[in-house]
Amino acid sequence: MSGPELTSVDVPGLAHPITYDPALPISLWREEIARTIADHQVVVIAGETGSGKTTQIPKICLELGRRNIGHTQPRRIAARSVAERVAEELHSSLGDLIGYQVRFTRKASAETRVKIMTDGVLLAEIGHDRDLRRYDTIIIDEAHERSLNIDFLLGYLKVLLPRRPDLKIIITSATIDTDRFAAHFADADGTSAPIIEVSGRTYPVEVRYRPILADGEADQVGGICAAITELSAVGDGDILVFCSGEREIRDAADAITAMDLRRTEVLPLYARLSAAEQHRVFNTHTGRRIVLATNVAETSLTVPGIRYVVDPGTARISRYSARTKVQRLPIEPISQASANQRAGRCGRVAPGVCIRLYDEEDFAARPEFTEPEILRTNLASVILQMTAADLGAIATFPFVEAPDASQINDGLRLLAELGALSSGLGERPRLTGIGRRLAQIPVDPRMGRMLLAGERLGCLAEIMIIVAGMSIQDPRERPVEERDKAEALHRRFWAPMAGVDETTDADQGPAGEQADRKADPPAPDGSDFQAWLRLWDYLRSQQRALSGNAFRRMCRQEHLHFLRIREWQDLHAQLRDIARDLKLQRNTAPAPIERVHTAILTGLLSQVGLADVKEEPARGQRKPRGRAPLREYIGARGTRFAINPGSSLARTQPPLVMAGEIVETTRLWARTVGPVTAGQVEEVGAHVLKRTYAEPHWSTRQAAVLASETVSLFGVPIVAGRRVPYARVNPVEAREIFLRAALVEGQWTTRHHFFADNQQLRAEAAELEERTRRRDLVVDDQVIYDFYDARVPADITSGAHFDRWWKTTRHEQPELLTLTMDDLVVADPSGGGAAFPDHWTVRSPQGEEHDLEVSYRFSPGDPRDGVSVEIPLAVLNQLDETPFSWQVPGMRSELVTEMIRALPKAVRKTLVPAPEYAARALRWLADHPADGGTREALPQALARALRGLTGERVHPGDVDLERVPAHLRVTFVITGDRGEVAVGKDLAALAEELAPKVQQTLSRAAAEHTRAGATDWVFGTIEATVQLTRAGHRVVGYPALADEGTSVGLMVAENAERQRSSHRRGLRRLVQLQTPDPTKWVVSHLGNTDKLSLGTSPYAGVPALLADARLASVGELIRRAGGDQTRDEATFRRLCDTVRSDNADQMRSIVNVVAQTLTLRQRALSLVPRAAAVAPAAAEDVSEQLGNLVFAGFVAATGYEHLVDVPRYVSAAEQRLTALIAAPARDQRAAEVIGRSEDAYAAACDLAPAGPLPEDLDAIGWLLEELRVSLFAQNLRTKVPVSEKRVTTAIAEVRRRLGG
């Protein structure tokens, strides 16, 4: 029985009539479609798959007389096959009436009236044909796919229509969201474009759900084979199987071929096949054909004769990951619409069956439509393509669905960062040379930028591996149950691997087994990116050495995800093809990792971080309790992140890093990290770096104006404080600074005669002002600046510039720059004389006279304002403040006046006017000197004078010296051999601060009073003090013994307190050297338990511990005998006899205490790990406490009166740990008390001067141990009453004494 006849239409200009197959549903709508196209500028035609819309609409347009028809397809394979089909139906050779054009192929001629092309080709034509004048009709096919190119075309055509009223636009789509297209092309009054819906499927399709386990590719391939078996039992007919990609097609083809099905042909169908191979699916055949296709067969192509469809429900869908900042092609579940499209490919020739390899609930939970590509694509890619096609500004472009404005700005910022745009956030950005090349690379812009840089830097081969790796999910798995083993295996790639390219010896076993036997992981050499390269090389060598199944087993054993590795290799192959198409040159020799990092950095500039390094405590300084703060990195635009603990850089933490991705979990973590340098950032990021300049200043050394340059990258200070010539930045300001600093202020080392003469003249004028404290004698610096400004040329900005100019000018105008006194002085000076002396003669308490230099400065607010007295360091400990309290005669009256004003109000109100009473008090004191000529400070003298004048009882302490202006108090300048050592107004505080330096100075001056290396008393009688001469001054020193370890020396201390401390330690050592060693006797009387305990000490060994115990025993016996300050040989011998008699018993007592302490310490330490598991902070606190109590040297360092308490303190720590394990919550409150108290104690310790802690502060440390006993082990009882309040009070008293 024959079917309906073909409809035939003659069209002028065509050699053959146009025929329409009535079997195609669209043929029934031909007349209505033609009528609608003729009456409207835009028509939307919706038709199910197989309706014939793709091949018949161009024929309808030809029938209407349209002469230049452009017809777009989303894929190259579809463009070519559609063109061939339409040409065949019109009895025309391909390239004549019907032509086609894809990316690298064009087959068309001047006679071509219908050109079928990819949408990218039409988009490219807009660049040189803005109004698309070569076309009178444009058909956008498969618009429902909503690719970027389709959205670009739809938006551009909307703008173009008003300029081309003759242009016809036909939008064809599956029956998916057609109203959106119609509304997009609505006319001025809001009327949507007409929609014609064409029904396609003519036979019912049965959908069967056959879910498979989601456990890798084997299940999917097995599911496909099971579905084919099931469909073979249904009946004859071809089967279409959808696969995600070429690799999946090959796997399925191998599995189906292995089924050995009779009279069955297996054909692949994907875009990269040759035209001849693609055509095979359209050829007639016998038997059954199974077509394995990507989603190109979903809507773009209609494969003839399909009765059955197998749908695994997945496809590769391009998607931008905001987390990794990478455009990826992950395999994802398809939408309901796509699933229905796939099912629609069967049932065209007879009732069909579609088997879905997932369940019905899964289908119902999927989104209705596939998200448009523009909403799942990095907008940087969109903007790049739009700019390349010159489509206008993205913010105003009429997209079918416009992206968010903030996303647009993010995209623009990224392109500016990559150097692709010449104006990052402008309305009409322009592509740079890099941008034009990036637009040709069909990968994420960041990745594309790395590829371009890789070619330029000669490391493209390495970059392609890394880019492919960064675009997939990490193939290195870390299962919870075997995390440690997996991480050990992965750490192999952190360092060079020996023998990677060699064939693996089968007898050695897989690396997964060897990992358990390897004790030490390789030391990382610091780059996660290099780890990717090593992993790649390792996998390639293993693939060459192993069979396919063996390689899979190796991956499983070494916790490497086989599927992700394949995806990585597939992406790398695609990148290789892209590089070949774009003629990017790959390097053949391995590139240095630094160059690889530089190339990667071009795409990761906004993911650079600078280590925020916290200041470490100085050596010997007490460390604060608690955990050290986590090191952070300062990231772009104010972010802060840390390196992921799983990174190879987690421990080394270089100062500057780049991160492949930054993820937020409990905080921001950087993953895939590599080190970079500031030089690399400046090399590739110059276009986005921000340079700021601060502190422009004159450099005397370089004779130029320099500034501190800060180079920042998105807020990250890449370079800070770099000194650069400021004249390049701001020559006008640099010249001004040069004139003011070098010429006016004299900060210049030069031999020019005018300069030296001017400086000397200005010093003479300034001296007049300083002595008399007047500021109306000499002109200010601005007058001097104007003098030089009027004479020095405008282009002189540095010493070198000036020297070149002055070399010739000085011969022509030698006096041009020479100042005169008339230029400087504007008023006559007055004052001076004996009231402002140059020297101050002071008698020390020891009766020595010292002649000290005096200088003056009139500079209110300056620390040196007023009178300064220069005191040599060697005599600092010989002077007190009493004579200096009287000031120089010229300022004494003003000082006394201000002291009266600083009295309490009740007193000072009776002493008005203050200047008059000051004068009277000074006259009275001249007539009434202190009784017996005693040394009297001015406050005491003033109090005595005011009582004598007024009868008012005034106490010296009533004068509030803080209210006296600073310039009236003498400034003390302490000088050493190399100049100033310290400056201040408190002479006593300076003496304490500089005590160590005074001691060194005295020792050098007292060489004849010092010696070293003595092991017996060879010092004669050691005097309490000695008279020395240093820098022309007679000074007093304090001789003392000094402990040198294995011998004793004699030194000269700067004060009596230091003398006592050093002498006590030195005497202890000397007595030890002169008394028998009781160590063997003590050891022989120790029990085995005690001996074992001694071996657990933190000392280098038991002998070192016993030696320390012997020293502690000698010290304690000296203290009991009251011999701490023995200074002659006879007394020393008697002291040795006393120690000798009791030393063995005392040392045995000390060793017993130490053994007990160590036993308790071991028990406590054994509990720490269990406590750390439930309360890490508390366990760490106890560990630190034990370390502070028991350390190498603790026996002799701890006085015996405290040493006997140490076992109790350690026992209290043990009890705390035991309670902590049982009930962690109960420890919290007491721990907070200890934390507060120790923080306050640490702050007080910071106020103490260098050296051993003062006795009162050291006592508080032991009081804290008693507080711990009271909080955690009350049953052990405390030695003294203690509480948090008592500790806080004691700390407060010490802070007041220390000035805190």
UniProtKB/TrEMBL annotation:
Family annotation (CDD domains): SF2_C_RHA
This protein's UniProt keywords: ATP-binding, Helicase, Hydrolase, Nucleotide-binding
Presence of the UniProt keyword Ubl conjugation in the record: no
Coiled-coil stretches noted in the UniProt entry, renumbered to this chain: none
Pfam families for the chain: DEAD, DUF3418, HA2_C, Helicase_C, OB_NTP_bind
An annotated Gene Ontology molecular function: helicase activity
Identification of the protein by name: ATP-dependent RNA helicase HrpA
Classification of source organism: Bacteria, Bacillati, Actinomycetota, Actinomycetes, Propionibacteriales
